[in-house]
Amino acid sequence: MKLSTNSSHNSEERGVLEQYKLPFLNISSQFPLYPGKNHAKIEAALLGWTEQELERARANLQKNARQAALELLKEDEIVDQLDALPFDGEECIAILGDSISLDAQGWVYILSHLIDIGKEQTNLKWINASQAYDTTTDALRRLDRDMLVHNPDWVIIALGTFDAQRLAVYPDRTLIPLSDTWENIQAIQEILDQTLDHPPLWVSPAAVITDLLTEHALYDFYIQPEDLRAVQDVVTGKIGGIVDPKAERMGENGPRAWHYIPDGLHHSLTGHMQTVKEIIKTLVEIDKKGVANIMDEDA
Q1: Using CB atoms within 10 A as the burial measure, which of 18, 19, 20, 247 is most buried?
Q2: Would you tell me how many other CB atoms lie within 10 Å of the CB of residue 8?
């Protein structure tokens, strides 16, 4: 991609790339056979940047995630919960998700920083097997190649948001029929039941601000609340640790704009922090009960 020679246009394009492309760019994962997948020069060229610019931008994303973790550590409840996590310090934790989980300053990286800083004697291995805009169909197809091959001890699944999208060119149905979403999630559940010693964690798809998403120039789809609620019901009905079972972490009476970047779909740092809080809470509940928490009225 070659940027325009107009300086104001360059600035606008760069802002779009930094907010909507860079955090979700993972060439080595998306194109595992691509010869240039691990070359920063090639990645930078795709953005029209220099290697130094790319390095600085990525360092800033990492800094943001770490700072968010430090902010969470100011909360006494979080500190207490970290001490109660069911980890012995040597586990492999794998995440199977979409672009919301892939975000380079998102909840996966905030959570890893949080545990690394706040819990002593941990040496956890983190595998983020998320892919931008993945549906449950996409994730099921690559489950073995991208995640199970690492023999994880704990698995966190954060899928379903993009199953509920309706394409602008054909809005009469969701991209993935709800019956297919149910079957995909069930297949993932059955595979994990045969593989893991610990219950998986299922992260409910967070609400979307439909008006912002529909109006955004970068997207050719939208997500209706009723479609997403149907997917949320499928996810939160599984056996495992149910993270945010009522899908209210972005706002009990509707999603709050400050938890999102301007597309109303992907999360801001404060939004990702809400997800981290719910995951920590769920892990502690599993440890206290000895079994996975199943959705109930008090969840």
Answers
A1: 247
A2: 8
User: Hey, what amino acid is at 292?
Assistant: A
Which residues span the domain enclosing 155?
Answer: 75-289
d(CA 134, CA 112): 22
Quick check: is 191 in a domain? yes
DSSP per residue, 203-269: EPPPP--HHHHHH-TT-SEEE-HHHHHHHHHHHHTSSSEEESTT--TT-TTS--GGGB-TTSSSB-H
Task: Write the burial class of residue 211 (CB in 10 Å: 0-12 exposed, 13-18 middle, 19+ buried).
Answer: exposed
Cβ distance 79 to 69 under 8 Å? no
d(CA 23, CA 37): 16
Q: Digits of tens for pLDDT over the chain (299 positions)? A: 344 444 444 778 888 889 988 999 887 777 776 776 677 888 888 888 999 999 999 999 999 999 999 999 999 999 999 999 999 888 999 999 999 999 999 999 999 999 999 988 788 999 999 999 999 999 999 999 999 999 999 999 999 999 999 999 999 999 999 999 999 999 999 999 999 999 999 999 999 999 999 999 999 999 999 999 999 999 999 999 999 999 999 999 999 999 999 999 999 999 999 999 999 999 999 866 655 544 444 44
* Closest to 210 in 3D by CA, of 175, 173, 164, 248: 164
Side chain identity, residue 188: I
Nearest to 279 by CA among 76, 81, 143: 81
| Residues 6+ positions from 218 with CB-CB distance below 8 Å | 16, 20, 263
Q: What is the CATH number of the domain that holds 217?
A: 3.40.50.1110
Domain count, the chain: 1
Whether 148 is in a domain gets the answer yes
